[in-house]
């Protein structure tokens, strides 16, 4: 059997003394397309931050691409290869202009300026945001910021996508565009969302985070969950 891309073992995490994740186990294999649901405050965002090394669990192990990841430097490779969309776009975007934000990751991976600009053009086209390239990022609308944040993730060509509420703030046509892109161009995904119809269209299995643990619901929302 193949090794999982991400393997969390017995993860316990508390903010101050409040336990959010409690001996949680979780694995993602190549080709998995998982929807993660759970009530507000159940720890979904916290879980993604632990995978990306932005929060450190008090106990348990984070294994990614077959290696235990503990220290800050262990997560450099993780952040290059796993595309993480923050729940809040303002945490994702930090450059003065949209094109600089989208080019940032590719330049960091060693692409030339010309290559990075070509990636900016292509990625903007996918999401229909060509007109935003020269705009000042912090002056964009919420939905526009969401799209630029998504573009920064797609521009990195990650092997695995972790998307925290990707469709929040997007209009119907734009959501459709995003879904079509994800369906056709991505292999391994974990999507956190309260939008069940969005998850229905993209996820193969649905997990529930509740009381600090993940449960495989063992069914697809489409077929079995009351809508
Ligand atoms: N920096 C922090 N300090 C203290 N408590 C925090 C902090 N960040 C989150 N929490 C708490 O931890 C719990 C889990 O938060 P988290 O953001 O992971 O939930 P979530 O499942 O992503 O919720 P939502 O669906 O609302 O996005 C919540 O009760 C939240 O209030
Ligand atoms: Mg959240």
- Low-confidence runs: none
- Give the full name of the CATH homologous superfamily: P-loop containing nucleotide triphosphate hydrolases
Ligands bound here?
A: adenosine-5'-triphosphate, magnesium ion
- What is the makeup of the main sheet? 6 strands, mixed
Account of the 3D structure:
This protein has 227 residues and is of the alpha/beta class. The protein has a single domain (6-220), classed as P-loop containing nucleotide triphosphate hydrolases (Rossmann fold, 3-Layer(aba) Sandwich), CATH 3.40.50. 35% of the residues lie in helices and 26% in strands. The chain is built from eight helices and ten strands. The protein has helices at 44-51, 75-81, 98-108, 113-127, 142-154, 172-185, 196-202, 221-224, and strands at residues 6-15, 18-28, 33-37, 59-64, 67-68, 82-85, 160-164, 188-192, 205-210, 213-216. The strands form two sheets. A six-stranded mixed β-sheet has the order 6-7-8-3-9-10, sandwiched between helices. Helix 3 crosses helix 4 (113-127), helix 3 runs parallel beside helix 5 and helix 4 crosses helix 5 (142-154). The longest helix is centred in the middle third of the chain and has 15 residues, at 113-127. The mean pLDDT is 94. Adenosine-5'-triphosphate binds at residues 15, 20, 38, 40-46, 87.
